[in-house]
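Hello,

Our lab assistant flagged a job as stuck in the queue for most of the afternoon. It eventually completed. Since we weren't sure the result was trustworthy after the delay, we are filing this so someone can double-check. Below is the sequence as submitted and the structure that was eventually returned. Let us know if re-running is recommended.
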Amino acid sequence: MKNILITGATSGIGEGLVNTYCSDALVFACGRNAAALANYENTANVTPLQFDVTDIEDIRSKTRDIESLDVLILNAGNCEYIDDALNFDSVLFERVIKVNLLSLGYCLDVLLNKVKPGGQLVIVSSSAAFLPLPRAQAYGASKAAATYLAQTMAVDLQEIDVSVVHPGFVKTPLTEKNDFPMPMAVSVEDAAQYIKKGIAKRKKDIHFPKRFTLIMKLFQVLPFGLWGIVAKGLSR
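-- returned structure --
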């Protein structure tokens, strides 16, 4: 059985991935929420690990006993929006960047050397990385950077395959807070299956649902000025 470590495993996509993989893999389910992690204590093949991905020493101490991994899935993240771009909220911006981007560097520092040759690194980004969207100065920037980080790791790593995941809207406790329509949203269970299948095929870009993400990718080819008009319309 493969050893798989998943961050952000206490809710949403991370929880879905743990539940999807635990039937045929040994899973390290990682997160900050002790109460949520306690739900895994009697789940076969799951080892819960409590640590904060924004604290490199916490990551190091809690994963010290892990000798090797077949798949490292860096999924932990947060989403907050900047409602007034003119009065820019730098505290919110720092908070989102730290969770969604800097934590990736901390996890790679500590955990990447545990991935076996022939293993896989998976970074969960977002389809928000494809285009500049209203109120997404913090979230979108962090996810665009996460995508770039994954792609550069894919260029430089010789013995480890790298995948970046670009989900569309997924029905999670985090997205329940959204105050705007979420077209073509998929369930956590479906999202986990999309990701698992993409990892099994060692796809470089795992994006879903394709009827949504392909539209996003198509909009990428628009001149920025034209997309800006569309994006401003979305914000109204």
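-- support follow-up --
The delay was a queue issue, not a problem with the job. The result is valid. DSSP finds eight helices and seven strands in the chain. The two ends are 50 Å apart (CA to CA).
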